DNA sequence: AACTCGGGGCA
DNA sequence: TGCCCAGAGTT
């Protein structure tokens, strides 16, 4: 598929540097930050974790907190009741079963409370340098609009993107597609006029005949 | 497949 | 002000 290569080329040229926006000093901090980042901005997460990691540094520190205590400290990130419970459970598992170290294995990570496919892949990539390609809602939306994947699940899109993107560049592409999805290829009212790959967009073609659908 | 969680971001 | 999320879990 030559057009896919062309899309990759154009996006790479248009968005040369795409770096992670979450702040972290070690795999554990990253894991907590990514759990907190669900349905929340990285800016808000950074603000929250900066204060949080000042006082609580290890899985053992978090495992000792009550849900109410932690919930109060992570309120700014939303979904605090779920997240605080997940984080405490996860920290207990990490300290009891993994000797206080974040596992670097996908299945072990995904089995942790509050950790799904996307979170596990972000941790593997950013903390352990593994060639995963995390698919969040932005990556999913962009990949489908551009016809980079015909899959209708994040997992299928992930597989197609992994086949398409070089091992050493998957982390970069995760952030590049997120950046593109937030700034240009937005869920609502995308800025198609300033899109460098609009000629390849399946959504624009479809919209000529059908009604606009947000995520397609 | 649909629903819940929730403060922040944005029209 | 109201609507929608830089997901994951439960039913």
UniProtKB/TrEMBL annotation:
Signal peptide: none
Domain HhH-GPD residue range list: 36-183
InterPro entries in the cross-refs: DNA_glycosylase, Endonuclease-III-like_CS2, Endonuclease3_FeS-loop_motif, Endouclease-III_FeS-bd_BS, HhH-GPD_domain, HhH_base_excis_C, HhH_motif, Nth
Reaction equation(s) it catalyzes: 2'-deoxyribonucleotide-(2'-deoxyribose 5'-phosphate)-2'-deoxyribonucleotide-DNA = a 3'-end 2'-deoxyribonucleotide-(2,3-dehydro-2,3-deoxyribose 5'-phosphate)-DNA + a 5'-end 5'-phospho-2'-deoxyribonucleoside-DNA + H(+)
Co-factor note (free text): Binds 1 [4Fe-4S] cluster.
Pfam families referenced in this protein's UniProt entry, alphabetically: EndIII_4Fe-2S, HHH, HhH-GPD
GO MF entries: 4 iron, 4 sulfur cluster binding; class I DNA-(apurinic or apyrimidinic site) endonuclease activity; DNA binding; DNA N-glycosylase activity; metal ion binding
PANTHER family to which the protein is assigned, alphabetical: A/G-SPECIFIC ADENINE GLYCOSYLASE/ENDONUCLEASE III, ENDONUCLEASE III
Protein name per its UniProtKB record: Endonuclease III
Organism encoding this protein: Sporotomaculum syntrophicum
Name of the gene this protein is made from: nth
